[in-house]
């Protein structure tokens, strides 16, 4: 393809990409319009999902006031677990099943939006819990038909769950993070009101910012769509179709916005000017990874989150051991960029420059290292833990981490340089500490 040499046709590779664009409303104050939006989607009785912290905050007050004004009946479910488990998805489903609802609203972070998606699915098309869960852990059964309308309203900015057909959870019996992925899980509307970020603790701002950054860099540096094998059924291209010209645009701008704002957002006493660019960056990266797909940092993150022993994250309310998603991703990223740099150096250099690194006169062969160094510098300035050791792992855990990450073929194959098992173990070793 003439758009970029990166998309030159590969042997047996695909010759087309698709563009899935979520419906989004973006702007300060937009949450107060949710009543009209719910009405327009035909909702009369709403299952309203949030979590115990967000339930007490302004966005829930604004959304419930607007629903009331529109004459829409609703019931609030505020028991969503942060970083949800199958137990939490099942409890959310029981609420939906008993309530006789015709619509869903979620106001909160990725944990809340994902719980609402899963509850909508299992209450509308009940089945064994593992039926819809991604293979090989579950059966990856497609969602049988349309779900009830869902309006997702993020109060964080990292996950872009409002843009995706993905619901992530921790499967307790396997100590593994996995998910459910199907286009029908995508909410009908996302309402992104940047003022919702005003109360977000700074540690969560940092973790969200690096999650966005990693979505964008992973999508930009993913294997080109033209080198992914063409699908057997031309109507069924995978969600993660590889880097493509559409997601490139969104991702480069997302990286630039994170680079320009994340340090101030975490460290400045008054960070209000950063809410809008951060939330917009999160949305752009969501559109980017929703079309291109992530690769190694996210692949490794599911092992890092799933095998947690006693790490608790300062700034998060839970005293349960947990490595928050954004942290579990970014601790792997510098090691990955040093490894993938040579596979598409121009793209790593573009990302480093967009992130604010000085790339004047730099040699292309150093691109992966320049990007890694820039990320490490920003991790240090924003209080992110120092690699895997910083979240409680040591050399003794490398085998177990690799065992968890290596089966995630979809994410490994989307890397510009898919590692074998030994190399993946080496990446975990390289990610143990950075300074
Ligand atoms: N569905 C997807 O596409 C997708 C993508 C990436 C991650 N995820 C998942 O999303 C979850 C993480 O979501 P997250 O990072 O958005 O955070 P979260 O929903 O887990 O919330 C983190 C904490 O922030 C609090 N919080 C949220 N908004 C707040 C606000 N405005 N002010 C004060 N506190 C606030 C919450 O109560 C919670 O304690 C993980 O389970 C992750 O695996 C999903
Ligand atoms: Fe993520």
List keywords for this structure.
435 residues, alpha/beta, Rossmann fold, Dehydroquinate synthase-like, alpha domain, two-stranded antiparallel ribbon, 16 helices, 8 strands, 43% helix, globular, binds nicotinamide-adenine-dinucleotide, binds fe (ii) ion
Describe this structure in a few short sentences.
It contains 16 helices and eight strands.
Structure, described:
The chain is α/β, with parallel strands linked by helices and 435 residues long. It has 2 domains: 24-197, 3-Layer(aba) Sandwich (Rossmann fold); 202-225 and 234-430, Dehydroquinate synthase-like, alpha domain (Up-down Bundle). The protein has 16 helices and 8 strands. It has helices spanning 34-40, 58-69, 86-99, 110-124, 202-220, 245-267, 275-292, 296-306, 325-330, 333-340, 345-354, 367-381, 387-390, 398-405, 409-413, 421-430, and strands at 24-26, 45-49, 73-77, 103-108, 150-154, 166-171, 176-181, 189-192. The strands form 2 sheets. The chain has a 6-stranded parallel beta sheet with strand order 1-8-5-4-2-3, with helices on both faces. It has a two-stranded antiparallel ribbon with strand order 6-7. α5 runs antiparallel to α6 and α5 packs parallel to α7. Fe (ii) ion is lined by residues 159, 211, 215, 298, 325, 329.
């Amino acid at each position: 393809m003439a758009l970029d040499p990166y998309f030159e046709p590969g042997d047996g590779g695909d010759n087309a990409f698709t563009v899935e664009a979520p419906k989004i409303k973006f702007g300060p104050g937009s949450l107060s319009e949710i009543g009209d939006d719910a009405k327009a989607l035909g909702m009369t009785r709403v299952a309203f999902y949030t979590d115990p912290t967000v339930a007490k905050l302004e966005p829930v007050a604004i959304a419930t006031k607007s629903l009331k004004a529109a004459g829409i009946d609703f019931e609030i479910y505020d028991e969503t677990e942060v970083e949800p488990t199958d137990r939490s998805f099942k409890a959310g489903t029981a609420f939906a099943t008993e309530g006789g609802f015709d619509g869903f609203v979620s106001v909160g972070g990725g944990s809340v939006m994902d719980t609402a998606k899963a509850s909508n699915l299992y209450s509308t098309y009940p089945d064994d819990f593992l039926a819809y869960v991604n293979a090989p852990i579950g059966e990856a059964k497609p969602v049988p038909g349309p779900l009830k309308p869902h309006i997702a309203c993020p109060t964080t900015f990292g996950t872009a769950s409002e843009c995706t057909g993905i619901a992530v959870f921790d499967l307790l019996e396997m100590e593994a993070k996995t998910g459910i992925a199907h286009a029908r899980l995508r909410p009908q509307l996302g309402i992104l009101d940047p003022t919702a970020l005003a109360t977000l603790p700074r540690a969560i701002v940092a973790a969200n910012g690096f999650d966005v950054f990693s979505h964008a860099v992973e999508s930009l540096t993913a294997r080109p769509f033209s080198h992914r094998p063409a699908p057997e059924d031309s109507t069924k291209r995978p969600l993660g179709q590889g880097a493509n010209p559409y997601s490139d645009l969104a991702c480069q701008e997302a990286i630039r916005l994170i680079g320009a704002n994340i340090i101030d957002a975490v460290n400045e006493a008054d960070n209000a000017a950063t809410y809008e660019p951060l939330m917009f960056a999160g949305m752009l990266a969501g559109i980017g990874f929703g079309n291109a797909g992530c690769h190694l940092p996210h692949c490794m993150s599911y092992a890092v989150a799933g095998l947690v022993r006693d790490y608790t994250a300062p700034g998060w309310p839970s005293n349960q051991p947990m490595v928050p998603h954004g942290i579990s991703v970014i601790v792997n990223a510098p090691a990955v960029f040093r490894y993938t740099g040579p596979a598409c150096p121009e793209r790593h250099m573009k990302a480093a420059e967009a992130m604010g690194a000085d790339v004047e006169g730099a040699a292309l062969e150093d691109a992966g290292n320049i990007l890694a160094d820039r990320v490490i510098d920003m991790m240090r300035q924003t209080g992110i833990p120092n690699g895997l050791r910083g979240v409680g792992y040591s050399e003794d855990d490398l085998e177990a981490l690799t065992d968890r990450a290596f089966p995630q073929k979809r994410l490994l194959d989307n890397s510009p340089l898919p590692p074998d098992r030994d190399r993946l173990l080496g990446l975990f070793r390289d990610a143990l500490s950075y300074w």
